[in-house]
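Running this now, will post back.
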Amino acid sequence: MPGLKVTYIDFSLFTAPYDGELIRAVQSLDKVESVSLFARSARNKNEAQWLEEVQVHNTFSAAEKLSPLSPALCRIMKGVTLPVQYQRLLRHCSEQQTDIVHFQWLNIPKIDMRYLIQLSKLTTLVLTLHDTEYLHGEGSSLIQGACLMCGLVVFVGVL
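Update: finished.
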């Protein structure tokens, strides 16, 4: 019986140490065949060390080039290109026959939902909620939190 194929999603690589440790723990399980990560490129050696021996599908590479010039423009570019990242993820899950997709968080729930519904038809979705106060209480958090709550129906597990 073939092992599980798992894909982790942390598009912005906000939690490189957590991602690295979690992925290594999952890779060590007997029933896991492969693990991959959809995330931006490591920005420094510290981030890179956590991602050694992890198959990383780089996201937002064009937007990341703008980061030193204009962090605000970089964020806008990430939002605009989020659908492209989801198309890549859908293609990956379809081609690799991914068994589980684990999201660290959702970027823009209104956009995420369109693609989460499509993904849920291909694979099992799991979401980790790290904060009980969505987006740390920033101005848009009520709207995005409400969108997230509506979206929870597509997830098999919420950790």
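Residues 71-96 form the longest helix (26 residues). More later if anyone needs it.
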